[in-house]
Write a structure and sequence with these properties.
2 helices, elongated
Length: 59
């Protein structure tokens, strides 16, 4: 795994972290649009296992 691969994985995990913040903030406060919260939750549900598997395979 070279430097570029590591940067892509770090960026992917940061994007998922942003989705987690949106999902948690939306569920806790109820002030974010429900469509945004649902979208962030769906991306977390699908993206986390995919990126975790990709990270595991790359190491």
């Amino acid at each position: 795994m070279d430097r570029n691969d590591r940067l892509v994985l770090v960026a992917a995990w940061l994007v998922l972290a942003a989705f987690a913040v949106i999902a948690v903030a939306g569920h806790v406060t109820g002030r974010l649009p429900q469509g945004l919260v649902d979208c962030a939750t769906a991306w977390l549900a699908v993206g986390t296992p995919v990126i975790a598997w990709t990270t595991w395979r790359a190491v």
